[in-house]
Amino acid sequence: MNIYLAINEGSKVLRNRCISNSQLDAEILMAKTINKNKKYILLNYNNPLNKNQLKNFYELIEQRSLGNPVAYLVNKKYFWNSEFFVTGDTLIPRPDTELVVENALKFTKHRNKLDILDIGIGSGCILLSILKERKNFFGTGIDISKKCLNISKKNANNLKVSSRLKLYKSDVDKFNLGKYDLIISNPPYIKTCKLKYLERDVVDFEPRMALDGGLDGLSEIRKVIKKSSELIKKNGKFILEIGFDQKNKVINLLKSEGFYINKTQKDLAYNDRCIVSTKI
Ligand code: GLN
Description:
Layout: H1 3-16, H2 22-34, H3 38-43, H4 51-65, H5 70-74, E1 76-79, E2 82-85, H6 98-107, E3 114-119, H7 125-133, E4 137-143, H8 146-158, E5 165-169, E6 180-185, H9 200-203, H10 219-231, E7 232-241, H11 247-256, E8 259-266, E9 272-279
Parallel strand pairs: 3-4, 3-6, 4-5, 6-7
Antiparallel strand pairs: 1-2, 7-9, 8-9
Helix pairs in contact: 1-2, 1-4, 2-4, 6-7
The structure holds glutamine (GLN).
């Protein structure tokens, strides 16, 4: 069996199991199987596969057909300007979250040295993307998951920013170290009762801890805002990712903790997704 035929077979299996990007997914999983990139695959369609490779490929196809996201199967996801190592222990970086990076860079354009805190760093995609763009910025990341901290560390090494990063295993409530010019966070913000309606790929495979925002979806956001108001410097910027229906409630929470709202921004699906504020 050659690469071309195997991809076709794999893609057919995925299509029959209602996976939407079946062809693309099969190509990516083939690239992972033979440890080459997608370009190689396209240029070498006629290359034969050995038994072991075929077995590995069909195992990946089986995993994908059960809903396991491609990013977890290949252990990587592209975000902003870099590729991030990811496992099932971290949320998969999403394009919507690039709004946080975009605003962080925009609102600190004229700043030289800056201390940044990322609350719930996960894979590190937000903070590390910023550190990579701004060589004089320093980052601190906290997370309750030790596994996430290890993944962030690995990504920081890959992106060559680890000398400017400190990581702490801590709950947001218990963290009291330092004062920051910029705080960023993509906390869990889905209402517990709505989790079951998320796509299967998300609800069955991504860490619940990174999604579950409690009864009203705001339990973690509330904690993050409260703690940020203590840890942020006067005039410091606070940039938060929020759920599509949380804008007004979050604005009120921010105002009650002494933040001025600079702007809110919608994502590509036209949902409110990002709030930029300043501690006054
Ligand atoms: N945007 C993610 C989703 O809807 C949720 C991320 C989060 O809770 N922080 O899948």
